[in-house]
């Protein structure tokens, strides 16, 4: 079993808060991680997609009353929204009795739905963590290129061969479109959403142009926005916001958008293996977004991620802003002899970041300028993770 970097953060959150919500797309490993930590804590597990477990909660007050001394794990908790007021009552009652932490672990596949339900009812009583697909810190002997091609979903990465990996991802996409997505929002034609998802993959890492998507799909801009909101909510697509500040420059104001898991990008585009990827026009943007997603995942939410671009051509692929107000600038190159563009130097002059890196697919870390380091992805991910440990609070 591959150890998850989130494990100690989840354990600490349960030690600090009466309820913790663990969010992430389906098949990302939420249940496995929850059961692993639940085994240590003697937890009770309830799958709310199971009719048998749902029946146990026909009268949740009575059921939970019999298990006050145990951590209770609720899988797919968004299926039972009426449970949240009950949990609030038990948390408040437990606080009066001295039971202040580690009462409930809530697992959910749709962040907006769960955040809205829990936020309205459990405000001040719940912490949130997101579990992403495997990142470069977790995959051990597998190379960053293996992870890049297959993506980080466990069943895809651990498949016996590339053909089985691709088939799993294709089935995953089909299941989301035909079964899962209709559960989370207004009825959307699966084929229309598939076309939009494929367009996002072709436009991987591009600045959002909703009007162009609208024309290509034959729908209005509002519908495009709804499609995008849904895929972001399901944690399948990321909107990387532009950095904004009063620096006297004309800044790009639209976000970049990309499919978060590189393996899903390749499946949507029909790319079967590394050779096919290297010959595809999306290869550069696929690598860039793979690096961005891994670095943000390594940070466990501690640094906020942005990109920086001005009308004059100054650009930084990824800006990490830390709670201590430190800024890190990251340029991404898929070259063994990486060199920053002129726009990177110009952008760094605008923002004066504390650290400047160029991530590349090599194995050696070295200086390419007095204040700029070329660095392999695993090393920068480890550095970000180490700093995140000092900054994450629950």
Task: Please give a handful of descriptors for the protein shown.
394 residues, Rossmann fold, Arc Repressor Mutant, subunit A, alpha/beta, single chain, 14 strands, 5-stranded parallel sheet, 6-stranded mixed sheet
Plain-language structure description:
- The protein has 394 residues and is α/β, with parallel strands linked by helices.
- The protein has 2 domains: 7-130, P-loop containing nucleotide triphosphate hydrolases (Rossmann fold); 144-391, Winged helix-like DNA-binding domain superfamily/Winged helix DNA-binding domain (Arc Repressor Mutant, subunit A).
- The chain is 45% helix and 17% strand.
- It contains 17 helices and 14 strands.
- The strands form 3 sheets. A 6-stranded mixed β-sheet has the order 9-10-11-12-14-13. A 5-stranded parallel β-sheet has the order 2-3-4-1-5, with helices on both faces.
- β9 (304-309) and β10 form a beta hairpin.
- The radius of gyration is 22 Å and the shape is globular.
- The model has no long low-confidence stretch (mean pLDDT 91).
């Amino acid at each position: 079993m591959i150890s998850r970097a989130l494990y100690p953060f989840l354990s600490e959150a349960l030690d600090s808060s009466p309820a913790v919500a663990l969010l992430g797309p389906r098949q990302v490993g939420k249940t496995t991680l929850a059961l692993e930590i639940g085994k240590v804590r003697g937890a009770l597990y309830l799958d709310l997609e199971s009719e048998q477990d749902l029946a146990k909660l026909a009268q949740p007050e009575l059921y939970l009353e019999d298990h006050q001394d145990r951590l209770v794990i609720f899988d797919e908790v968004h299926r039972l929204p009426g449970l949240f007021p009950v949990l609030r009552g038990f948390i408040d009652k437990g606080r009066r009795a001295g039971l202040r932490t580690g009462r409930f672990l809530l697992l959910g596949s749709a962040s907006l739905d769960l955040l809205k339900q829990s936020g309205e009812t459990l405000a001040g009583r719940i912490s949130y963590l997101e579990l992403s697909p495997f990142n470069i810190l977790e995959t051990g002997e597998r190379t960053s290129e293996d992870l890049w091609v297959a993506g980080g979903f466990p069943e895809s990465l651990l498949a016996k061969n590339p053909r089985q990996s691709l088939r799993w991802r294709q089935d995953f996409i089909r299941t989301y479109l035909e079964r899962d997505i209709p559960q989370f929002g207004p009825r959307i034609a699966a084929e229309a959403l598939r076309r939009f998802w494929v367009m996002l993959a072709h436009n991987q890492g591009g600045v959002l142009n909703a009007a162009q998507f609208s024309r290509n799909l034959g729908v209005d801009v509002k519908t495009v926005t709804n499609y995008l909101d849904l895929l972001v909510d399901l944690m399948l697509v990321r909107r990387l916001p532009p950095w904004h500040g009063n620096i006297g420059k004309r800044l790009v104001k639209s976000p970049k958008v990309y499919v978060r898991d590189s393996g899903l990008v390749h499946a949507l585009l029909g790319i079967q293996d590394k050779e096919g990827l290297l010959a595809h026009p999306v290869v550069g943007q696929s690598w860039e977004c793979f690096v961005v997603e891994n670095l943000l995942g390594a940070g466990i939410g501690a640094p906020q991620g942005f990109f920086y671009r001005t009308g004059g051509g100054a650009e930084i692929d990824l800006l990490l802003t830390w709670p201590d107000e430190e800024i890190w600038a990251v340029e991404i190159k898929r070259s063994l002899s990486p060199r920053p563009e002129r726009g990177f130097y110009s952008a760094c002059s605008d923002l004066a970041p504390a650290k400047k890196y160029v991530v590349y697919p090599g194995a050696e870390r070295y200086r390419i300028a007095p204040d700029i380091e070329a660095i392999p992805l695993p090393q920068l991910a480890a550095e970000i993770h180490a700093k995140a440990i000092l900054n994450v609070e629950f």
